[in-house]
Amino acid sequence: MTAEATTPVLRAEDVTVRFTGRDATVNAVNGVSFTLDPGEVLCILGESGSGKSVTLRALMRLLPARRTQLSGRIELAGQDVMAMSHRALADLRGTEVGMIFQEPMVAFDPVYTVGRQITETIVRHEGTSREEARRRAIDLLDRVRIPSPERRLRAYPHELSGGMRQRAMIALALCCNPTLLLADEPTTALDATVQIQILLLLRELQRELGMAVIFVTHDVGVAVEIADRIAVMYGGKFMETGPVREIMRNPRHPYTQGLLSSTVHGSLRGKTLEAIPGSPPDMTRLPPGCAFAPRCRFAEPGCETPPAATQLTPQHMVRCIRAA
Amino acid sequence: MLNYIIRRVLYVIPIGLGVTVLVFALVHMSPGDPLSAVVPPDAPEEMVQDLRKAYGFDKPLPVQYVTWLGRVLVGDLGVSVARGREVVEELRIAVPNTFILAAGGTLLGFTLGAILGGIAGFFQGRWIDKLATSIAITGVSVPHYWLGLVLVIVFSVEMNVLPSIGMGPGGSTAWEWDAEHMRHLVLPVITLAVIPMGLITRTVRATVAEILNQEFVQALHAKGLFQRQVLVHIVRNAAPTTLAVMGLQLGYLLGGSILVETVFQWPGTGSLLNSAIFERDLPLLQGTILVLAMFFVLLNLIVDILQSAIDPRMSRR
Known about the structure:
By secondary structure, chain A is of the alpha/beta class.
């Protein structure tokens, strides 16, 4: 990371998302704050249901407006996202921010060709001719290493393999040179060998294009591979954030420690893997204090009040009373 | 794609043959002698036998079928027993009349259904959805001959603003594009449109709601498309399912609704079937059913091809 303070690509302050239903209110995201510098790769790491995908979508205000209460401040490329009109938001999406989804099969419109879905985005945002957009799309497919791109442009999503589809999805997300790429578990639905290819491709494109990336995953190995900074999410909050090496070497939150010792990655042969006991919290009824306390082996009476964020170093934050 | 279309067109041959067998068999399986309607009960046995021979009813059924099929293939549907005229002639008058009625019913029913269903699907769970859904349920539940009668009572008898029966002034049986014929069209078209409107509203609502729940809609928003562009995507996704239902409905409407045509005394295929059944007019019945069934087959062919043109996944199945 460079030390010069540039204007951040993204600044999120106390972002909170609630889904209101007939029977219950789901507290999906409970006050997430962070900033992202240009070219920085942040990994949001957490179990399913921890609110990481919702956080990602909230940044673009992509959640269904009717059932969602979104609050906090989101500043993207210097603009206040929360105050934006629908039109301004639509202009921002696809240009400043691109998004990759977990399952390219369901994220592509099944009845349009892949090429059409890329070119319509280019034409929409840049007002280029169809022909020009098509040339750009071919370049993009080439860039994400799709062989015989001209032929693939005419293919429908179901005619491509899983890995190929995800590559096409990446091409789509990058088609208007975004400064920020949001990736929602882009490797989870793929075969292990394809996962690595996609990961390497993403890392390479990120370096080449210099864009900032927020990468959501539940896989510690993936996070280590791609991230500059990791944010560990639990119960809709960032429990610990810090540079990758710092988090890997010196995890301070019991949940982070649990996550690290429950994955195969980097553990020594013969060392037993430890699972975190219990299951993720019910987001409709979060405990008043630390959300992880019910599963934490170090839990103490003080955990019943929400732990404050402790800055261990300017970079390393942890939300646990034991660290304070 | 082209392969699929050729294959699909060739399917029409066995389907068509199957239809002719069914049409032939159905009519012959019904009890009673086809001649009993035209021959007086006290007619001499010899005359009955002669007539039977003249119509070919004395031969074994398979032979009758083959001769009938041979004539059908060259466009000869025989002579109406009760009316003494060519069946083809009768159909030439009735089919266009039914088409006019069906076209009106289709236009009204499909348009209303698509709009109501689209609105209901987009605003699922809100009052406007509940309103559209209740209109749809009412539409499919109301017996349409009853609705036809009520409309006649209200608009013809009480308010006296629209004609109650017939297709035009003075029992006209040939359609003309004038105001008088148009006025005769209003009530039967409304009556006919109600069921397809309800069915299509429900189909479109369910389809749109299902599509809106799919992730690609969020992905379309995520790439910054205008709302209307997203709408076009949704419509194209909803089209194949809707088309299938519309095709079937159009088939029913083209078949001519016996009930509606009878209530309004509309001189179409429905009326023709009605009288053919009551008069035990075998050739007319066979001919009419056959032609209507063939319309159905053809319509399904068109729908299938359209569907595969819109949704590329279809032609693989």
